[in-house]
Structure formats: structure tokens, C-alpha cells
Specification:
Blueprint (H helix, E strand, L loop, with lengths): L7 E6 L3 E7 L27 H19 L6 E11 L8 E11 L3 E11 L8 E12 L18 H9 L7
Antiparallel strand pairs: 1-2, 2-4, 3-6, 4-5, 5-6
């Protein structure tokens, strides 16, 4: 995984729940395209984090929860997005809080439900739930087609190991 869409894991209850945060910054490249100023139409720039990247943040949070449940021995990949409801945008200065809950886990894969909250930097502002995301994951080494994948865990690469270590999550892989 080249891009990480979470900055820190703030809570991990093994095989149950993971909470992660993402600080949205104007310095991220995608902010300048979503949505760029249109001088001809007289529209100012409106930088927001695109919905697919918010979904990816939940997928990474949930995938870590699923991977951790098996000691990161399995290569965990997103198999299906069951539900996505996003009600608001995230802008520079906001923080997203992803809460992933494990609802099913077996040898073939796992299912999670998740909630996305927007934490505004404005003093006295309460967290606001802006999304619900249900995901399914597959353990690809146990695929029904019998396909073989490399031995090393290319899903949970160095970036994820660094994120886990900096968040205080012990891993032995």
C-alpha cells in the first residue's frame, strides 16, 4: 500500500474494535483538484477530501483490525463495499475519526461495520457522525481459485508497520 489515509490508531480492542484518526491538510495534493477554482465561472476553490479517500481510510482502519485479529499472518484485501453513507465533506483543518467494528471473522475473511466522525477544530464543536461504511474482506491466500501469491505480506508493508509502531500497536511481522 503506497498511500496511508489514516494518521494514527488511537484505540485497539483486539478482534472487536479499532479507532483511527486522519488529519485533513491543505498540503495534500488531492485537495487542489477537489474542487479547484473556476475563474471563468467566478467560483472560488473549495478543497474537500474526496469520498473515495474517506472510504479508503475506513478500509485501511478496518483492514488493520482484521489483520491484527490473525496476527497479520493473512494477506487481507477489501472484497466488497456493502454500504456507504456519507453525509458531509471533510475540509482542511478537520480531523476524521474512523471507528471500525468486527462483525464476522472466519478462515475465508471478515466483515466490519464502521462510523466516520468529523472533528472540527472550532472550539466547543461536538463530533458529528458523517458516515457509515460496511465492508467485507478476504484472506487472499485462501482464495477459491487456488491462485498463489508471494510469501511476503505485501498488504501490510513498511508504511503500515511504521503506523502501527508509532501508534503503540505491537506487531511481530
Amino acid at each position: 500500500m503506497r498511500w496511508l489515509w489514516i494518521d494514527r490508531i488511537v484505540e485497539l480492542t483486539p478482534r472487536e474494535r479499532l479507532v483511527a484518526v486522519k488529519h485533513v491538510s491543505l498540503s495534500e495534493d488531492h485537495m487542489h483538484e477537489h474542487f479547484a477554482a473556476d475563474d471563468e465561472a467566478g467560483l472560488a476553490a473549495l478543497p474537500v477530501m474526496p469520498a473515495p479517500l474517506i472510504i479508503e481510510g475506513m478500509a485501511q482502519s478496518s483492514g488493520i483490525l482484521v489483520g491484527h485479529a490473525g496476527g497479520f499472518d493473512e494477506k487481507v484485501i477489501l472484497a466488497k463495499i456493502g454500504r456507504v453513507e456519507l453525509d458531509a465533506d471533510a475540509s482542511p483543518g478537520d480531523t476524521l475519526r474512523y471507528t471500525a467494528n468486527l462483525t464476522h471473522l472466519d478462515d475465508a475473511g471478515a466483515a466490519t461495520t464502521g462510523e466516520v466522525e468529523l472533528l472540527s477544530p472550532a472550539p466547543g464543536t461536538e463530533p458529528m457522525t458523517i458516515g457509515r461504511i460496511d465492508l467485507m474482506f478476504s484472506h487472499i491466500d485462501r482464495n477459491s481459485a487456488g491462485l498463489a501469491f508471494p510469501e511476503h505480506n505485501f498488504v501490510f508493508g513498511e508504511g503500515f508497520r511504521t503506523l502501527l509502531r508509532l501508534s503503540g500497536v505491537q506487531v511481530d511481522f
